[in-house]
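We keep the chain:
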Amino acid sequence: MTTLVESEEHKALRSAVAALGKRYGRDYLTRTVAEGKPPTELWSEAGKLGYLGVNLPEEYGGGGGGIAELSIVLEELGAAGSPLLMLVVSPAICGTVISRFGTEDQKRQWLPGLADGTRLMAFGITEPDAGSNSHRITTTARRDGADWLLTGRKVFISGVDMADAVLIVGRTEDARTGRLKPCLFIVPTDAEGFRKHPIDMELNAAEKQFELVLDDVRLPADALVGDEDAGLLQLFAGLNPERVMTAAFAIGMGRYALAKAVEYARDRTVWKAPIGAHQAIAHPLAQAHIDLELARLMMQKAARLYDAGDDIGAGEAANMAKYAAGEACVRAVDQAVHTLGGNGLTREFGLASLITAARVSRIAPVSREMILNYVSHQTLGLPKSY
């Protein structure tokens, strides 16, 4: 059931995570980026407090909640200026897929570590020539006796240098039709034939992006997650949480920028009055707040639908939440920088770097245009354009 008012448990979680985020804040994240290091201290503490695995089953060390709870964690860390991008990947995508479709051995091997932060898993789907078209994925897995051999390339894979393994989306040949079908494999980052190359990004983030080369990486039979014939279902079981969590990331970032702008508009005085007293300043900030709140409502709806097991309903809502949050985030950051004027571009106020970061929420993990395509033909029933 979708409710419009958060439960007391969710309010308490939000408050507790906000307190953790405040203790680290934007200065911590800025420092780790400048030093070229991952946010290990915050990640470890969040894990010890149970926040990283709040969505994972209790019997494997998690909190027994769902994506609704995990999205609160990411949003509040983002609102404090210290979001953890790998929350989108490790517990939300990989943890969810393994908890839903993994074998008992896979669950026991991976979920406790993903829950407490001592292990981390990246996710590899994007390819150089496939873009948003998962049907063009060319990374292939073929059987070699009892083993699998995995070959292909992936790009824009986050946090591989921090990860113990990567959940790779590959394709196998259907013995009956000869067609390639998607499958998911757990690939250790120290496997022979697995190579990673950092991508030089203009975007300054604590989590680096990588290109992966898989050259006949030999994997045991139990590296396959779930049923070989249900790969597409399993894949989207991970992509819906990814969209919800991307929305949380964007909403948190937008809230952080908006709070900075509001604080500045209250204090900055020109022509004998705080600039926030002028409607030209106040109204755009109010609109940004409204947009972020509306995006959060759709995010909460998507998370609850997903946690209730409604994958189809969650697919539509998760896409719309990601779209709304991305647009709201970009507008909030832009208005925040504009409110501060020249100060909005200084290192002292720490907003200028968000201009680039906010754009990510419009681009990844799926562009806003592809979301509009989805809504056009899945929701409105219009003909497909591709």
